[in-house]
Specification:
The protein is built from nine helices and nine strands. It is α/β, with parallel strands linked by helices. Helix 6 packs antiparallel against helix 8 (253-270).
């Protein structure tokens, strides 16, 4: 960066249908795992904010829930979060898979994007899974539907072309001072990240339908006075007694598996040993209960600027 070059700083929303790799891309861009990642829908339920800083400026990423049809109040909340994020940022980064098929989910997003007045960057993810000619065909298919400010193919998993994506986004950001200190990676509370990492392990290990009906509530998060250990008590919330039995597993085997995986992830994040205790409670139809949604942290989120 030249001495007289202006600093560029702004907000970029990652949008897309479920499972296109938004959280994986965001984690890769900032070089740290903040958002939960799995191949299940509804992995991201809240708007998660992270910060990328370099000499040229700063990009504040907003990872949003996958846009899909709402089936309950939680789904309504997720759609509200994704929709509001589009109106709060300087650039929209739309992630799609490298396919020429533009389905109903993509068309729902297209309908929204055609109405925005800010730059939209089309980001074709998972390019490591297809040949070059298929990427070109995908670009042609999407650019026939809408004119994009830029089109950037990447592979979040392989780290391919991420530098180019950062360059494009910084170029589109307004001139101005940075919003956060250079060493800030996220403004998420550590206990909230821990809850997401526990839920991620449940998504990975549990049967197909059960993860959609769970939430994680961290009820204790305390570092011991000598700094040797962090104690975490967390409750996995589910909707049915039968689900509780599956989450616990025979002799507690499934709960131990979830806890073991989550503990490793949290220890990597904290760089410290963790004593993690997991409990399971049943709260029928919590996804349609406004009071419980509020208790579990699913609230309308205000813009953080």
């Amino acid at each position: 960066m030249s001495e007289n070059a202006p600093t560029r700083s702004g907000f970029a929303a990652l949008v897309g249908r479920p499972n296109v790799g938004k959280s994986t891309l965001m984690n890769a861009l900032i070089g740290q795992k903040i958002a939960a990642v799995s191949n299940r829908a509804q992995t991201t339920r809240r708007k998660i904010q992270t910060v990328y800083t370099c000499d040229e400026g700063q990009i504040v990423f907003l990872d949003t829930p996958g846009i899909t049809r709402a089936k309950n109040k939680l789904g309504d909340y997720m759609l509200e979060v994704s929709g509001s994020a589009m109106g709060e940022v300087d650039v929209i980064l739309w992630l799609v898979e490298p396919s020429t098929f533009i389905g109903a989910g993509e068309r729902q997003i297209l309908e929204r994007l055609r109405k925005v007045k800010i730059p939209v960057v089309l980001c074709i993810n998972k390019t490591d899974t297809v040949k070059e000619e298929q990427i070109a065909e995908c670009i042609t298919a999407y650019t026939k539907e809408m004119e994009f400010t830029e089109v950037v193919p990447v592979s979040a998993v392989k780290g391919k072309n991420l530098d180019e994506l950062i360059r494009v986004l910084l170029r589109l950001m307004p001139e101005g001072p940075m919003f956060y200190d250079a060493d800030t990676v996220t403004d998420e509370r550590v206990r909230d990240i821990a809850a997401e990492l526990i839920r991620e392990q449940a998504l990975i290990h549990l049967d197909k339908e059960i993860p959609h009906g769970i939430a994680v509530l961290v009820e204790r998060f305390s570092e011991r006075p000598d700094g040797s250990l962090t104690d975490i008590d967390a409750t996995i919330i589910c909707e049915r007694d039968s689900h509780k039995g599956i989450i616990i597993g025979k002799g507690g085997s499934m709960l131990r598996r979830i806890g073991s995986g989550a503990r490793r992830e949290i220890e990597d994040m904290l760089e410290q040993q963790v004593n993690l205790k997991l409990f399971v409670k049943v709260r029928p139809d919590w996804r349609d209960n406004a009071m419980l949604l509020k208790e579990y942290g699913y609230l309308s989120q205000k813009k953080k600027r």
